[in-house]
Amino acid sequence: MLLTAMRNTAFALLALVITQTSVLSFTLEVGGKIKNTTDAENKSYIFTDKELFAMPVHSITTTTSWTPRVKFDGVLLADILAKVGAEGTMMTLYALNDYYIDVPISDVAKYNMILAYKMGGEMLKVRDFGPLFLIYPRDAGGAELNSPLYNSRFIWQINRIVIK
User: Fold this and answer.
1) Phi-psi category of residue 125: left, alpha or beta, with phi > 0 → left and psi -120 to 50 → alpha
2) Where are the alpha helices (DSSP H) in 25-155?
3) How far is the C-alpha of 118 from the C-alpha of 134, rounded, in Å?
4) For the sheet containing 158-163, what is the strand order?
5) Which of 1, 51, 61, 104 gives a 20 to 30 Å CA spacing to 111?
């Protein structure tokens, strides 16, 4: 009986680990005016979470309208655009719920935004702005980055970007 209970506990723990791993797994699709693709048929570049985690990590410590001052870690949006060979002037970022916002690509050079996958050292979960949250250096950007226009660009739950 004890052996059966131990075996059932082991299976339950294994199932929990597998479930938690798959919950944290995500992809980012980038399409539109790009030169480099991983999916030629759909003319898009699909980044796996592992590929994003392997890219250089950058941090921004800032407040948002939804969070206190905290350190966000992630990938420079500039690095993602360079990897796909983006050739547009505007990008549309989409969230898991199909919410979207247009952001000029000129913001990337001006503000060095990141696609954060961590906040306060913890991985972002879907219920907490994940898998990816567009972060501007709001606290260092003066009045411009504290405006309603830029507040609207702090999009979270990002899963797709289209370059225009």
Assistant:
1) beta
2) 49-54, 77-84, 106-111, 142-145, 148-151
3) 11
4) 44-48, 27-32, 158-163, 90-95, 100-104
5) 51
Whether the Cβ atoms of residue 114 and residue 77 lie closer than 8 Å to each other = yes
Q: Per-residue pLDDT for 18 more than 50? A: no
Residue 45's nearest CA partner among 55, 60, 54, 32 is 32
How many Cβ atoms sit within 10 Å of the Cβ of residue 77?
Answer: 26
As a whole number of angstroms, the distance between CA 22 and CA 155 comes to: 23
Note the pLDDT tens digit of each residue in 111-122: 999 999 999 999
d(CA 110, CA 144): 12
Residue 163 CA to residue 12 CA, distance in Å, equals 44
